[in-house]
Amino acid sequence: MGIKLTMRRQVLFFLIFAFSSAGGQVTYSIPEEMSKGSLVGNIAQDLAIEVKRLKSGKARIYTEDNAEYIELNRDRGVLLVKERIDREALCAQTTPCALHLQITLEDPIEFYTVTVEINDINDNAPSFKKEEMKFRISESAVIGAKFVLERAMDLDVGMNGLQSYSLKPTDNFHLKLHSQQDGSKKVEMVLQKHLDREAQDHLSLMLTAVDGGDPQLSGTMRVEISVLDVNDNAPVFTQEIYKVSITETNSPKGTVVATVTASDADQGSNSKVTYSITNTLDNVRKVFKINEENGEISIIESIDFEKSKHFQINLLASDEGGLTDSCKLIVDVQDVNDNEPEINIMSKSNVISEDVQLQTVVTVINSEDIDSGDNGNVNCYINENIPFTLKSSTNNFYSLVTENDLDRERSSEYNITVTCSDEGVPSLSSSVTLTLQISDVNDNAPVFERSSYEAYIVENNTPGLSIFTVKATDADWNQNARVSYILEDSSVNGVPVSSYVSVSADSGVIHAVRSFDFEQIKDFQFLVKAQDGGSPPLSSNVTVKILIQDQNDNPPQVLYPVQTGGSVVAEMVPRSADVGYLVTKVVAVDVDSGQNAWLSYKLQKVTDRALFEVGLQNGEIRTIRQVNDKDAVKQRLTVIVEDNGQPSRSATVIVNVAVADSFPEVLSEFTDLIHDKEYNDNLTFYLVLALAVVSFLFITCVVVIISVKIYRWRQSRILYQSNLPVIPYYPPRYSDTLGTGTLQHVYNYEVCRTTDSRKSDCKFGRAGSQNVLIMDPSSTGTMQRIQSEKSILDEPDSPASYSIPEEMAKGSVVGNIARDLDVDLKRLKSGKARVYTGGGAEYIGLNKEKGVLLVQERIDREALCG
Ligand SMILES: *[C@@H]1O[C@H](CO)[C@@H](O)[C@H](O)[C@H]1NC(C)=O
Ligand SMILES: *[C@@H]1O[C@H](CO)[C@@H](O)[C@H](O)[C@H]1NC(C)=O
């Protein structure tokens, strides 16, 4: 280190030097830290001692503490620095600091005192023990609050010692120094401005200590201040009003609709915010909930736009210290098309007449949809292909009106489906079905099943016999379809038709009023009117033709030869007549017709069978051999004329033939023939007498028998006993059905009430009322069918007869007709077997499946047979 003496020191130095040399002692002043070998002072000069003397006197330095900071150079007579001198180590804070040396000489012994003053130089900076100091200061600390800081140390003294402190920055704190009694200073830091943790939670200050040296040295210490939080800030929501919109049903429970956030500038628990909903009057708290911790608002109840269109949620945020903030959340609910249109029927008629005018209002309906916007716009329509249309009027009202004519007969009921759909996407719809009945109007006349009818009746019928039934149907309903049959007035052969037939108004059954005679009337026709019960009634008519069928009720009548009472007519045959000579011709007629009038001629009795024959067809009597002389003159032929009816009727005629060449010959022979005539007259008288007697006896017997039977019947009325059916034999009957020419195969059978001898028998056997089992009566039968008919004709016929008690229950079996008649069940079906009774009374029915006859109607013997 270089030596720099100030002017003041140099002056002092010279004063001390001057004094010392005079007093035998010398004082030097040097700065500390001089380098080794530096000159301290020229001792020889200052003590006025020659250098030789220093050498010869073996001058040397003596120090009390043997510290050898200074050495003596005897050659030059100067003092030099031997060791580095640190003033602070040598004297600490003591001032002044000096080294006291004795310089001793021998020969002679001399003694000099040298004082070397060591001067301080500023070689130490102020220093702090620690590098930093830490403070934790609440932001709420009051102004003026003091904080003691550590002091700094400076080993130098005087001006080189610690002089002052400074603290930077000075925003919040300033320094205050207090001088202590020991001269040191107490350093304090005083708060001069409030701390704000939220603005600055940490301050870093620098405390600097400086000394007064030149150059000035300094030491520093960091002051670290942590600002402690105080709950001086309320939470603050990020927005005052939040807005969110949600869709009603698309937001299920638990959906988070919004998250609100409030921030709190404080720290730790002072910044912990909890959220809550503060609505009290409305139902917001039932619908929403908020997560206290994170401010998530979620739905806890399904939201229905139709109930609430928006919600205002009042929210509160509070920190632990009780500071709060509030905000609003506006929730707008968006409509979703979640309601289907509602259809209300305002008024309706369930029944409508088929003749209503077009555009008649059937129903008024109203349709509403509580959704809003398009979701609530409703359109209605009805199903197609019905004679109705839906007319829209104002305010979602529609009227259902008739568009086309209605016809109950075509469709008596309509199911009208009204469908309403809204315009939402996707669209919702609903529908109702109205059932509309169409009521009847009498707009259809009865219609007969056929355009005309033909029926047959066998002559000699019993009056009251039902001939057949006409039937008409009416498409209308109930009373309008109730058909009555009326016989139209007309006349047949000048007689009103009502004296021939009557028509049952209810059933359309046509009855014969009288017994018909084919020989008088063969057919007639009339009109039957069918009239319904409507108002006004409608009607139609049909022609009915009745054809009367012939019965063989007339015997043949012989026209020739005429049978006279007294005279005898004879045909003459000359004895010369050849074979095949036409003797005469029997001429007969039959007023019946057809087979019944088809006559055949046979010889019944003949004197000589070998001589004559009669033509079967033409009634011609011819000779069949040569007449000879032996032949009697008088020949008597009885010719029988038979018709072909069933049973056949006949007439006989006696033909007298005279085989003679002359009339006198004939006359003689025929006198006994006249006697014969008288004989015959007597015989006739006796026969009549005998017949009268027999008839009387018979009637008497019948009366007696009937009396006895009635008596027994009364006695045993309860003791009824049924008998097995008796099947008598009936011959087959062929009948020619008029007009068609086909043959019917007919079985006759007889149903008897009982065969009990105590009761009178009652049979369905009266004329025209037989129960006839008819096989395939179709007039349109094919050739093949006729063949099958014929094959049946060939089979042996076995008419069946059954006997049943009266009052049998419906469905009771009368008899097994298939077995008894030996008819195959299949045949019954294929032949469309059915029961035909002339009287039209349907007491007995045929079950084709089982081949049995069944009771179809309760049979009351007394009603039937009296
Ligand atoms: C109408 O609906 C009813 C009940 O579904 C049904 O019985 C009836 O047959 C329907 N009528 C028509 C004409 O479809
Ligand atoms: C029967 O009906 C026809 C038309 O079907 C009609 O012309 C005629 O006048 C009617 N006759 C009587 C007697 O009602």
Automatic annotation (TrEMBL):
Keyword entries, A-Z: Calcium, Cell adhesion, Cell membrane, Glycoprotein, Membrane, Repeat, Signal, Transmembrane, Transmembrane helix
Domain Cadherin: 29-128, 129-237, 238-343, 344-448, 449-558, 573-670
Transmembrane stretches, start-end: 683-708
PROSITE patterns linked: CADHERIN_1, CADHERIN_2
Compartments in which it is found: Cell membrane
A Gene Ontology biological process term: homophilic cell adhesion via plasma membrane adhesion molecules
Protein name, entry field: Cadherin domain-containing protein
Natural source organism: Salarias fasciatus
